[in-house]
Amino acid sequence: MLYFDHCASTPPYDEVVDTLAQVMKIHYANPSSIHRAGAEADKLITRSRALLGEQFGVKPEEWLFTSGGTESNNLAVKGAARQFRSRGNHLITTQIEHASVNDAFRQLELEGFQVTYLPVSSTGHVDPEQLRAAITDDTILVSIMHVNNEVGSIQPIDKIGKLLEAYPRVLFHVDAVQSIGKLPVKIKEWGIDLLSGSAHKLRGPKGIGYLYVRESLQLQPLLSGGSQERGLRAGTQNVPGIVASAKALRMSIQAEEQNRERLYALRGRLIEQAEQIPELKLNGSHDQAVMAPHIVHFSYAAMKPEVIVHMLEELGAIVSTKSACSSKDNKPSRVLLAMGANREHAAGGIRISFGDEHTEQDIDKLAVMLGEAVAKLKPLERSK
Amino acid sequence: MIYDKVIVRYGELVMKGRNRNQFEKRMLQQTKLALRGFESLTYAKSFGRLTISLNGAPFEAISERLKDVFGIVSFSPVILVDNELEKIQAAALQLMNGLEQTPATFKVSAKRAWKPFVHSSQEMNHLVGSHVLRAFADLKVDVRKPEVELRVDTYEEGTFVYNKVIAGAGGFPFGSNGKAMLLLSGGIDSPVAGWMAMRKGLKLEAVHFHSYPFTSDKAKEKVIDLARRLSYYAGAPLKLHLVPFTEIQTRLVQARQDSLMITMMRRAMLRITEQLAERNEAGGIVTGESLGQVASQTLSSMNVIGRATVLPLLKPLLMMDKQEIINEAVKIGTFETSILPYEDCCTLFLPKSPSTNPNLNVVERAEKNIPELEQMLLTAVEGTEVLELTPEAQASAEKAGEDEWF
Questions:
Q1: Domain A2-9+256-379 adopts which CATH fold?
Q2: What's the pTM?
Q3: In a mutagenesis test of the B interface, which of A24, A43, A51 is the best target, namely the one with the most B β-carbons within 10 Å?
Q4: What pLDDT digit, counting tens, does each position of A7-26 carry?
Q5: Is B396 in Cβ contact with A19 (below 8 Å)?
Q6: Domain ranges (residues) in chain A
Q7: B53 by DSSP, 3-state: which?
Q8: CATH architecture of residue range(s) A14-254
Q9: Is A7 an annotated catalytic residue?
Q10: What's the average model confidence in pLDDT over B267-273?
């Protein structure tokens, strides 16, 4: 079976699995305990944090460990909005954010915040000028994802960061869950205040998220309890998960540069072959510079995408429809609608995402399977 | 801004007459040591100053490091150009454009050290000054108190053009005034005292007293981190003596002299340090005491405590206010570590009302009542653990667990 759903979750590195098991077995003490066993566990967290700081050229203390990308996004968005409510009531995000950001903003709307959801182009990209136009004296937070988790469009985070320099009161959150380990992420250079990541998207364990919170920036915590993680995230830390996730992060960032070109080559190869199948329409752009290297997204407008997913599974490949976090509802994709697709097109998305274990042969096999699947399904297409 | 050279100026040591040569040599050594990470640098010594050629190395990183080298009074990044008027003028303009804020006033100070150059210093002042004035509409010349002084020094090898003078740490080169022991508690004061002592050319070895289980391992680690920071300023490894103090402390508690407890403890510490000093050929003891800050730091407490040793007690913070000390601690990067909440052994068994005016006779009598004290001090000295710390060496958290886990 070929696994092409790296956007949903990735196969962990063997070394990461070993680390997880070893640390879990030895360092079971609570890292907040004052005895030596606790102190040892706490040191492992400190060392993990230092590793994160080093990878991104920031201070170790600026990184928090959470339970995952969803929590990191929730804490960043709600924590910042609620903390700085007295400064202003207006928030800005995009129409294509991950559910954990989008729904956090919906919740903040219910709490009385004004939220602007920026539109995107037909390729799934935000226009920094539209962002500039949306900023008011009341704006306190801008949250924009780095790489879209459905179609793979890269948002111009560097330009947006530059633009926001002129608005020191506006905090900048970036959901980098799909980009860390795939593309360079430059926290300081891009003027980012808050940045989310997730370990299991970069071959680490599930249950660990990363959250960068700029030095001395205060957030309103989501959880009440102990003063772990700078007092921003109560709860006993998951020591084995944290150590393993730091290792996974280091390994994936180290492999990133050398993988990137290879992944782009695979992406190009898949697109070229899949476009021989007229029923499939590429979403996003052909221009590599504005697309993530590991995601290819098509629509088969006349077919329910679940059917293709199951058909491909029978043929031996695992792909997905849209974001795993939203894939169980049958509505058309919010992201594709934002990109201007009609309902049929937006309801027919197929996402193929891959990683360093894939070869050209794997891609070729997948292309053949796609052809077969479409050929089989062609007679069953829904009528216009 | 791309610079070619850095001029480094020394201060006090130039005054030192016949010792100058030796000091200059040590300065060169210390500077090279501090900048050893930058491999492209080359150094040239000249009267009272040092010229570093960057050869492509980034000035900003070097500047960050040079700021902390003791003995450097100031330094300036320089653009080096051929001895041609147009090139000198262009460099002057480039430097003025590179300033973060355009000044209201400036002046040019040209110096023609290489006489064959066609223009005299006076002419250069005018030629470069007018060129700059034409480029900046609101800029004026002020020869008395200019905001920016643009220096143009012409030598045979070329002309140095510069307009920035960055203050250095001052003082004497590290280790040029002998060696002392530093009592390092883990609080805010003692690292600052250590920094000030090192700035005056003292080489230091740090001494810390720990009382496990009454103090935690974290308190010890905090002191290790502070010593590590001090070793950065030393530009050399720093020895940290970790003295086991539990036995002595618990014995002193049992002497039932509550109000004199701190006095006796401090005296015991000085005695141990004196022995360590002797073994390590140190000629003094540096402490972070500040007059009147706590009970043991009143004049009469210092009198009674200080008599425990014959070594000179150096107290750089003696006449400073707490806030001034905190400011220094922030500046030298020890404050954040110092305020981490771990008990040190001085705060343990702290009596309700420690004496601010202890009586020497009473103290000495109380000590005589502990006949085994001498032996205990010796045992502590013998049991002292010595760590050699460098800024690069890993903190304990950095080597926690197995390397392969990370």
A1: Aspartate Aminotransferase, domain 1 (3.90.1150)
A2: 0.74
A3: A43
A4: 999 999 999 999 999 999 99
A5: no
A6: 2-9+256-379, 14-254
A7: strand
A8: 3-Layer(aba) Sandwich (3.40)
A9: no
A10: 97
